[in-house]
Amino acid sequence: MLVRHVAALAAAPTLLVLSAPAVARETPPLTPVQERARAVMTQVVQLTNTERTRAGCPALTVDGQLVTASLRQSNYMARTRLFSHVWRNGSTFADRSEEAGYEKPAGENIAWGYRTAPDVVRAWMASIGHRKNILNCEARAMGAGVAFAADGTPYYTQVFGWE
């Protein structure tokens, strides 16, 4: 039996300042796992925005810095098998967002074990805290990331932003 878990975290709007220099890099081709992850997260964004527009909220734009923060969280959970908003070193979603260059993070949803994007979005929408993050009409941006543990278990993250 596959156990599925979800968790939500929200933060009061605060101004967090961090500047990060832009670095130009050549992008290598995606591996099949990366292509699968990209397709899943594209669908998560689409389904999240469908839920928001149904509720009368504006669609979220995808922010690259929030994608980076989301991917860091998903990779950490998949690598360590620690399902938590807070890393062992005390790092929070706000810290990871700041490190990625995003100044106003709003909240984070995490989940693991769901095999499809519709499954994970349905689970988030069935949870009061996750639903609140998704349907926060004041949020304007999001990043999403998924990483797969060595055994193929997916770990999902959404990070929402105020700007």
UniProtKB/TrEMBL annotation:
InterPro entries: CAP_dom, CAP_sf
Record keywords, A-Z: Signal
Keyword Heme: no
Signal sequence, start to end: 1-24
Domain of life: Bacteria
Domain SCP: 46-160
UniProt keyword Transmembrane helix present: no
UniProt name for this protein: Uncharacterized conserved protein YkwD, contains CAP (CSP/antigen 5/PR1) domain
Annotated source species: Actinoplanes derwentensis
Organism taxonomic ancestry: Bacteria, Bacillati, Actinomycetota, Actinomycetes, Micromonosporales
